[in-house]
TrEMBL record:
Protein name per its UniProtKB record: Probable malate:quinone oxidoreductase
NCBIfam families assigned to the protein according to its UniProt record, in alphabetical order: mal_quin_oxido, PRK05257.2-1, PRK05257.3-2
Main EC class the enzyme belongs to: oxidoreductase
Species for this entry: Pseudoclavibacter chungangensis
GO molecular function, one term: (S)-2-hydroxyglutarate dehydrogenase activity
Swiss-Prot/TrEMBL GO biological process terms: tricarboxylic acid cycle
Length: 480
């Protein structure tokens, strides 16, 4: 998110100075790292939680919105590729079909309803549905081989899906920022933020590594973006902005099974999402993914939820407790009261032995063998909780921007869909924080991105135009 915001600002205001302060010794070692997140571009092709069904009625608005947001991000990346500022796009984005896979008669009927709903939308016109094991085997053989022939299964298939390595993308974006004069300070932790009477922020930081370890310094800035992953909550609390009152965060850790065995990887070339367990949060929906990291293909399955009080993978065990305030304790307790099924799910996941976790994989990949897979610890996710007038507190799914009324500071809380919608979310930050400049910037963005602001889902022609243009620049070649 931070690298994206910096890249957009450098295009709009090339004379502005930009400084990035990173607490670790390298960039993108937390949630942006390819092994710490779900990775693939969340275009809403395969994620069932983006088409909720309530009282027999399914809606597509969220899926259409997220799809549009993702294509806005893709368009910005393709612009930078075209300008030579993002070299070798295959380092961060590759074509990987997206599938949804379900088992059981009720789930098959549910998935068919979802397909019938989405295929009417221009952006989803290429989506295919089948409950024929032979056809599903053509799309993703590992899902079918070794499965009981009498089992009811179904899948939807989108050939135009992608896999994104956000760690590589982050580093490439920051390399571009450095080339345009941005200052990048690594191994440096922000320990306090204070706003002066003139509105300028003083950011107190301390070196965590190197010869000058422990040295403190102050940076002055007219605008601050807190893109600190799970730690954004505590940093916004340190800044004492009124808008953060009532917000809390519950950390959820994750694990994945992965393999780089070429014979196993060759059996599955797709991203496949299933249906979440009862009580599972959206970020814990099971999925079996082809991942491309440093030019090498892997398979990854998960996530398995766990618990750690850390807000970052490289954080402190005191993170959760240090974020507690009088104004957020009651909302957090209210969320715990209303989400007992989530608590039960997390406890079950934490206590589950490896054999039980591996059994979940075999529901997707019947012929998987334990010896081929290793269990890795992924990154931390901080689920946002906030005050609610009726219920006391609610669990907030998705990402949420918090900004001070004067527009001098903003931060991002939340998880999925995360980095895939980075560009539209950061444009929202600019609109909130620089309202008097945004109209002029919109015109400039229109020059930079000729299709900026156009709705991919407005017509089949528009969807085809945007998809073709970005695919060509990004070097993507889906088999349609």
């Amino acid at each position: 998110m931070s690298a994206t915001l910096g890249s957009i600002i450098s295009k709009l205001e090339p004379d502005w100075s930009i400084k990035i302060i990173e607490r670790l010794d390298e960039l993108a070692l937390e949630s942006s790292n390819p092994w710490n997140n779900a990775g693939t571009g969340h275009a809403a092709y395969c994620e069932l939680n983006y088409t909720p069904e309530k009282n027999g009625t399914m809606t597509s608005e969220k899926a259409v919105t997220i799809n549009q947001q993702y294509f806005t991000s893709r368009e910005f990346w393709s612009l930078l590729v075209g300008a030579g500022e993002l070299p070798e796009p295959e380092r961060f984005i590759n074509t990987v079909p997206h599938l949804t896979f379900v088992q059981g008669a009720d789930n098959v009927a549910f998935l068919k309803r979802r397909w019938e709903l989405l295929k009417a939308e221009p952006a989803f016109a290429d989506m295919q549905f089948s409950d024929d094991p032979a056809i599903i085997a053509e799309w993703a053989p590992a899902l079918v081989v070794g499965r009981d022939v009498d089992e009811k299964i179904a899948a939807t298939y989108m050939p135009i899906g992608t896999d994104v390595d956000f760690g590589a993308l982050t580093n490439l974006l920051v390399d571009g920022l450095r080339g345009n004069g941005a200052e990048v300070t690594l191994g440096t932790e922000v320990i306090d933020l204070r706003q002066q009477r003139d509105g300028v922020w003083q950011i107190l930081s301390r070196k965590r590594s190197g010869e000058d370890r422990g040295r403190k310094s102050v940076t002055r800035a007219r605008f601050v973006f807190v893109g600190a992953g799970g730690r954004a909550l505590t940093l916004l609390q340190k800044a004492k902005i009124p808008e953060i009152r009532g917000y809390g965060g519950f950390p959820i850790s994750g694990q994945f099974l992965r393999t780089d065995n070429p014979e196993v990887v060759a059996k599955h070339q797709a991203k496949v999402y299933g249906k979440a367990s009862v009580g599972a949060p959206p970020m814990s929906v099971p999925h079996l993914d082809t991942r491309v990291v440093n030019g090498k293909k892997w398979l990854m399955f998960g996530p398995y939820a766990g618990f750690s009080p850390k807000y970052l993978k490289h954080g402190s065990y005191l993170d959760l407790f240090s974020s507690l305030r009088l104004h957020n304790i009651l909302p957090m307790l209210a969320v715990a009261r209303d989400n007992f099924d989530l608590v039960t799910y997390l406890v079950g996941q934490v206590l589950a032995p490896r054999r039980k976790k591996f059994a979940e994989l075999t529901k997707f990949f019947p012929e998987a063998e334990s010896k081929d897979w290793e269990l890795i610890t992924a990154g931390q996710r901080v689920q946002v909780m906030k005050r609610d007038a009726k219920r006391g507190g609610v669990l907030q799914m998705g990402t949420e921007v918090i900004s001070k009324a004067d527009g001098t500071i903003a931060g991002l809380l939340g998880a999925s869909p995360g980095a895939t919608v980075a560009v539209p979310v950061m444009l929202d930050v600019l609109k909130r924080c620089f309202p008097t400049r945004y109209d002029d910037w919109s015109a400039r963005l229109g020059e930079l991105m000729p299709d900026f602001g156009k709705r991919v889902n407005d017509s089949a022609e528009e969807a085809e135009h945007v998809l073709t243009a970005t695919n060509e620049r990004l070097g993507l070649h889906p088999q349609r």
